[in-house]
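Worked problem 6 (solution included).
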Amino acid sequence: MAVDGNWNLTMTTPMGERQATLSLKEAGGTLTGTQGAEGNTAEIFDGTVSGDAVNWKVSITNPMPLTLEFIGTVSGDSMSGEMGIGPMGSFPFTGAKA
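Solution. The predicted structure is:
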């Protein structure tokens, strides 16, 4: 599957652009892996893949405790979509294979 592997993400947030790394593995429509940013790494959860659509969540603690929800589309070596930040709304993200 095209989503498997390591990705570099750029997220547009209320506090400016943020960079993250993502390591993904798809098996039977389930997406697992880890996401890291600013020295912290967390397991993703509720990950799914359907065709070129990908969804996952990750809990962060910095700058505040939040669950981020990513809804995106993979096209070759790139990914794009929206990152939901709970009550703060949704913001765009892009990704490229590392």
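Discussion: Strands lie at 5-13, 16-27, 30-37, 40-43, 45-50, 53-60, 66-75, 78-84, 90-97.
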